[in-house]
Amino acid sequence: MDFMPLRASNARYALMLSLLSGFSFFQHASFANAAVDADDALGLCQVESLPQDIRATLERRFYGWKIQDSINLLPKARQQWSAIAPLACPGIAAGHFEDSRSVSYGLLLVPIDRGANGYKFLIFSAQSGQSFYGFKMLDQGTANASAFFVHTIALDKVLDSGQKKLLRPKGSAGVLLYSIDDKTSTQSVYFWTGASYDHAGADF
Questions:
Q1: Model confidence at 175, in pLDDT bands (50, 70, 90)?
Q2: What is the CA radius of gyration of the chain?
Q3: d(CA 3, CA 89)
Q4: Could you give the CA distance from residue 188 to residue 178 in angstroms, rounded to a whole number?
């Protein structure tokens, strides 16, 4: 019996497994960097992507602050963000949070000075058919801004039926505010109640 073809086949199989394993490792290791590259290339965090009225308010009321971008994230936060929403801006969450007929914008602002700490989390919304956006400050603090990102999320993914009955959110979407570093990880989901925004701890 000729074992040469069998040995050659086994060798090719082993080589293929080795190549696939190496590719898998490379793919995993470069995923976060690829997400950052996509963010930068597509200009997802550019202020120009927002309505003019919001841009004017940011320039007038929040001088010295900018929209959070992926380059500014800590490695742990960048890894988590890239696993959740690699083709979105970590500082912008857009959705029908208050009115099904108009889009609201959750913005995570961080200091332009990378050496400074602190963050501001706001939601801009407008009445249906209007171009004027008012804003609500939902959270702010002095923690390391590089640990934070935001993400639009379906409330069904983070609130169970009991929580919905208790909290009475309006609409089907909210904004997830995520903070993660080497020591801690916290998640809060913000949602519209019909009169104001409320929030609850989340596990996503």
A1: very high
A2: 22
A3: 57
A4: 7
The overall pTM is greater than 0.85: no
- Residue 79, classed as helix, strand or coil, is helix
Distance CA 62, CA 122 (A): 11
Mean pLDDT of the chain: 83
Task: Tell me how crowded residue 19 is: count the other CB atoms within 10 A of its CB.
Answer: 10
* Token pair of 188 as six digits: 């809060």
Q: How far apart are CA 116 and CA 75, in angstroms?
A: 18
Does residue 179 contact residue 185 with C-beta atoms inside 8 Å?
yes
CB 127 within 8 A of CB 86: no
Element (H, E) at 38: helix 4-42
Percent of the chain surpassing pLDDT 90 = 64
Q: How far is 189 from 151, CA to CA, in rounded Å?
A: 9
* Closest to 62 measured CA to CA, from 125, 131, 146, 118: 118
Tokens of 51: 């309505």
Q: Is the dihedral of CA 107, 108, 113, 116 positive or negative?
A: positive
Of 135, 127, 195, 203, nearest in space to 163 by CA: 203
**Residue 160 pLDDT greater than 80, yes or no:** yes
Closest C-alpha among 55, 37, 59 to residue 47: 55
